[in-house]
C-alpha cells in the first residue's frame, strides 16, 4: 500500500489544532501525548452539559454516540465492536485479561526482557498466589526478541505468552505477529500489551493473532488520561473468569441466578466518565482520519533523524537497539543524571521523561541502566524541534565536560 507522506503544511495545520504545540516542544508522547483540541473541547462541552442537565440525562442523549466508541476502536485494531471493553488504563486492561485466566500450580507463562513493570508485578503475584512459573525470553545480541528462544521455551505446561509490543523505556518493536504465529501453532493463549504501539503504528489483531490486547488512551492515541481499552477475541470471552460485577455485566438477573452478557462489555464497569469516553472516541477518529500507516512512517523518520543527530553529540550515548525502531528515543548524557537533563530541558520548554530501572526491569537490569532520558516523538513534532533539542543537549553535554576539565585542572 502506497503511503502518502506528510507535507509541511499538513503538519502545521495539525499543530494549529493542538494548542499545546504553540510554545512547548513536547517529546513525552510515550508518557502522555498532547491531545488535539477536538478531544479537549468535546470533553469540556460534555461536562458543561452534564452540569446543566444532569449526568444520566446527558448520557441518554448521547447514548448512540457513546456506543459508537467500541466500533471505532474495533476499526483501529481490525476487531469487532463486541470484542472491546472500555477501561481506565492499560494496566486495568491487562489485569482483567491476565487474572481472568485460571492458573494452576506449575503453569508456565512466557514473557520477554522488555515487559512493563505492571505486567511483571502481575506475573510475580500469580507466582506467589498460584505457583506459576515465569519464563523470561532474553533479547538476542542485536537487541531483538528471539523467536527461536521463544519456541525453545515452550513446553506442554505453557499456558500463556504475555509480551509488550513496544517497551516503555527502549526504542525497539517486538515482532508481535511472529510471536502470534508461534502462539497459534502451539495453541497457547497470547496477551499483548499494545500500550505504546496503539496510535503509533498499525496494530491489527488479526494479523498479530493475539487473544487479548491492552491499550491506554493517553499515549500515542492522544486521548484523555484515564481512558483505555481491552480487546478480547470472541472465542476467548467466555474463557476468562469475571473479576467484578455490576448491573450491566449481566443480560439477566433473578434472585437465584444471572446470565452474563455475551460481549466483551462484561469486562467494563457501568460507571465511567462519559466525557472521557467521547474524548477517546474523538482521538481514535482523529488518528484514523490521518492514517495510522502515515503516522508510523513519520514517527520512524523523525526518530531516525533524532538518533542520528544525538549520536553525533559528544558525551551522548543512545541506548536503542534492534531491527525495528519506534518513536521512543532513549539516551544518557555522560556526567549528568537524567533527572538534571530533564530539568535543564524543562527550563527551555522542552518535555522529556525519565526511564527508571524498575519500569522495564529485566532489560534495564541486564543493561545496567537506571534513570535514562526518554524523548518520544509523535507525528506532530517537527524536524526543527528536534534540531533545537539536539542543540540544547549539545550545550548541556559541553557544559558538563568543561566542568569536568576545570575540576581536573584545579
Ligand atoms: C509498555 C507499557 N505498558 C503498560 C503501561 C501502563 O499503562 P497505564 O499507565 O495506562 O496503565 C505503560 C505505561 O507507561 C507502558 O509503557
UniProtKB/TrEMBL annotation:
InterPro entries: Aminotrans_V_dom, Aminotrans_V_PyrdxlP_BS, PyrdxlP-dep_Trfase, PyrdxlP-dep_Trfase_major, PyrdxlP-dep_Trfase_small. Its cofactor is pyridoxal 5'-phosphate. Keywords: Aminotransferase, Pyridoxal phosphate, Transferase. GO terms for molecular function: transaminase activity. The keyword Signal does not apply. The keyword RNA-binding does not apply. Signal peptide: none annotated. Pfam families: Aminotran_5 (PF00266). Residues 26-388 form the Aminotransferase class V domain. Belongs to the class-V pyridoxal-phosphate-dependent aminotransferase family. This is Aminotransferase V.
